[in-house]
Recover the amino acids of this structure.
């Protein structure tokens, strides 16, 4: 076996919750809480209903819960449906090197497989840690290896396969095959083509979760795959620290705003100007955004779907200026006819700034800091320029993430149920069977 792949399979086989540093265990609980929050809120989006109905019909089964309506499907089907919900609002986490979203794939995959197997809370959290650590590294390899920028479901398939392999207690040889199966069957997801024409395929996250579950289950039956990219000699140094350094501890970050992160620096810059100069939206005659190439290519027309609203810079920015927040109420289709938002949308111009573009390209691999500049001109002629503003990664603690959870889960659950669910997540490693969590959904989620 290739040396890097041996390091990888040993890491997956040997990881034990009780032996993890407390900082890693803390991060795993935070990720679990955040992923559950965005999945619950995401069930309100049309793509979640479509994916759930399809999964129930085409991946029929009674082992794993679909959170939209609490039906059941096979593990692969539930993972697909719940992953579509988890990423439906683009409020799910990002991580270093991935240039995308790991958690929205990993949580649905381990929840579906773990429920089928009757896994404990500790076992699910172990699998989640493995999923993040492998996703970060395989994502780094993937973006270096592929010339075309591929969306999250590509490398995420391998991360999900690693996580589910742990739950299935596969041996080293079977894990190697699971990773190779997942990589071979991973979706070819050309990210920038969907940016130009946003649709429900988005980041291919449903396919990443489903492919990961299926690949690990196939490997358990003796199905074989090709050698994984994680074993390539040129990437040896990127995997050798597995089990020694836990990248998820410091380099997973969470999102406050329901839109593509490429546009967030513009939101920060605009709000800074509005606060500093006490600007009322009614006073604005023009907003000019200077940004980098990828952000400048985001949707420029009025959104007709929630996916178009998320993959826009102008619509989220108009919402932030008008409402000072950007969540389900701003990104769901019911808001798209708001005349005040449409009027403000028309005042926003997005231009490419060579200096900002250079800054982004210099740190693209890290993908944690982005820059934009915003100029606001008022009706009275006053003109304000933010200069180049940096949007840093969001690092949240228990208090702030619990607040986000309450805000998002309250769209679909009663307050007492939200409180009970938070308590369950904070003590999740004490659960003997994670079906306690899915039974909770059956009791409290509307059918």
């Amino acid at each position: 076996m290739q040396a890097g792949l041996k390091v990888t399979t040993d890491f997956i086989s040997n990881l034990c919750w009780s032996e993890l540093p407390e900082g890693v265990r803390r991060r795993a609980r935070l990720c679990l809480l955040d992923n559950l929050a965005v999945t619950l809120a995401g069930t309100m989006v049309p793509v979640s209903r479509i994916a759930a109905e399809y999964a129930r019909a085409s991946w029929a089964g009674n082992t794993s819960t679909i959170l939209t309506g609490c039906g059941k499907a096979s593990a692969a089907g539930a993972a697909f449906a719940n992953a579509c919900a988890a990423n439906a609002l683009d409020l799910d986490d990002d991580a270093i090197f991935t240039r995308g979203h790991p958690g929205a794939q990993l949580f649905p995959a381990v929840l579906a497989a773990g429920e089928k197997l009757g896994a404990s809370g500790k076992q699910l959290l172990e699998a989640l840690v493995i999923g993040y650590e492998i996703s970060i590294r395989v994502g780094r390899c993937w973006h270096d290896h592929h010339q075309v920028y591929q969306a999250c479901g590509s490398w995420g398939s391998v991360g999900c396969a690693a996580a589910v392999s742990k739950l299935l207690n596969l041996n080293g040889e079977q894990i190697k095959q699971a990773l190779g199966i997942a990589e071979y069957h991973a979706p070819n997801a050309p990210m920038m083509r969907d940016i130009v024409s946003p649709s429900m395929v988005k980041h291919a996250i449903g396919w990443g979760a489903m492919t990961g579950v299926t690949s690990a289950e196939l490997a358990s039956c003796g199905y074989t795959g090709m050698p994984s990219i994680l074993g390539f000699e040129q990437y040896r140094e990127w995997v050798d620290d597995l089990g020694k350094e836990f990248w998820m501890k410091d380099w997973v970050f969470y999102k406050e705003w329901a839109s593509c992160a490429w546009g967030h620096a513009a939101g920060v810059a605009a709000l800074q100007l509005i606060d500093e100069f006490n600007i009322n939206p009614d006073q604005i005659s023009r907003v000019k955004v200077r940004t980098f190439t990828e952000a400048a290519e985001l949707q420029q027309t009025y959104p007709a779907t929630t996916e178009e609203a998320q993959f826009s810079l102008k619509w989220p920015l108009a919402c932030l200026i008008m409402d000072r927040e950007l969540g389900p109420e701003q990104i769901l289709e019911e808001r798209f006819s708001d005349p005040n938002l449409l009027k403000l949308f028309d005042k926003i111009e997005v231009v490419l700034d060579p200096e900002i573009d250079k800054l982004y390209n210099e740190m693209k691999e890290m993908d944690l800091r982005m820059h934009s500049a915003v100029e606001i001109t008022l009706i009275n002629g006053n003109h304000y320029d933010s200069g180049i503003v940096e949007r840093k990664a969001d690092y949240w603690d228990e208090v702030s993430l619990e607040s986000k959870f309450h805000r998002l889960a309250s769209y679909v659950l009663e307050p007492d149920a939200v409180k009970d669910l938070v308590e369950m997540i904070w003590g999740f490693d004490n659960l003997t069977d994670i079906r306690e969590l899915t039974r909770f959904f059956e009791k409290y989620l509307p059918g």
About this structure: The chain has two domains: 3-256+407-444, 261-391. The beta strands are 64-65, 72-73, 94-95, 252-253, 284-291, 348-352, 370-378, 383-385, 389-391. Residues 3-256+407-444 form a domain with the 2-methylcitrate dehydratase PrpD fold (CATH 1.10.4100.10). The first helix runs from residue 3 to 14.
